Amino acid sequence: MNVFRLFADLLHLGSIFILIARLNQTKSCSGISLKTQGLYLLVFATRYLDLFFSFVSVYNTLMKIFFLASAGYIVYLMTGPLKTTHEKGLDSFRVEFLVGGALIFALLFPHKYTILEVLWSFSIYLEAVAILPQLFQMTRTGEADNITSHYVFALGGYRALYIINWIYRYYTEDNYSDYVAWVSGVVQTVLYADFFYIYFTRVLKGKAFKLPV
């Protein structure tokens, strides 16, 4: 644990709290991609299977439980109480290609060739692209409310801080390497590049999030 990872985890938690608050306050999931949320649920479900086999720390365990429970709760809201507000016609990204691609990469380039490690690698590869349906939906509408923008920014910021965390660990820990996470993390952060630009040039200046025409 270091300060960069701590702040990254807090930003990740913040993104989830922002989204849950937005869903409950507006009573609508308009502008939110159910496919992205379903992918995140799959990411956490395949990554945290070690909850049943190993214990690292109370912090680690509580974070894993929270991410699993919150992802399940968000999907429940969007498929249950708020189902009628889901913009299915806009949330049309073909996620089977993302899941299939992540599975192929996990089988070809796993962290280790064990069932748990292949599933862990799958979750890392899938998380790298899980935001694509959300970004795709935003491009189709050309805009997003500010709360949704803050949510997406927090998600991207969390991954950017994790890259700094990896760099820090590389120079402070002996024999530290994790190429699966490194490559996936960089890819994931790059996907946010256009969003970050618009966020900093518009949303932080009090303007609405709108894509250039």
Automatic annotation (TrEMBL):
Superkingdom of origin: Eukaryota
PROSITE patterns, A to Z: ER_LUMEN_RECEPTOR_1 (PS00951), ER_LUMEN_RECEPTOR_2 (PS00952)
Subcellular compartments: Endoplasmic reticulum membrane
Cellular component aspect of the GO annotation: endoplasmic reticulum membrane
Keywords tagged on the record: Endoplasmic reticulum, ER-Golgi transport, Membrane, Protein transport, Receptor, Transmembrane, Transmembrane helix, Transport
Transmembrane intervals: 65-83, 95-113, 119-136, 148-168, 180-200
GO biological process, one term: protein transport
Record-level Gene Ontology MF annotations: ER retention sequence binding
Membrane disposition: Multi-pass membrane protein
Family classification: Belongs to the ERD2 family.
Name of the protein this chain belongs to: ER lumen protein-retaining receptor
Taxonomic path: Eukaryota, Fungi, Fungi incertae sedis, Zoopagomycota, Kickxellomycotina
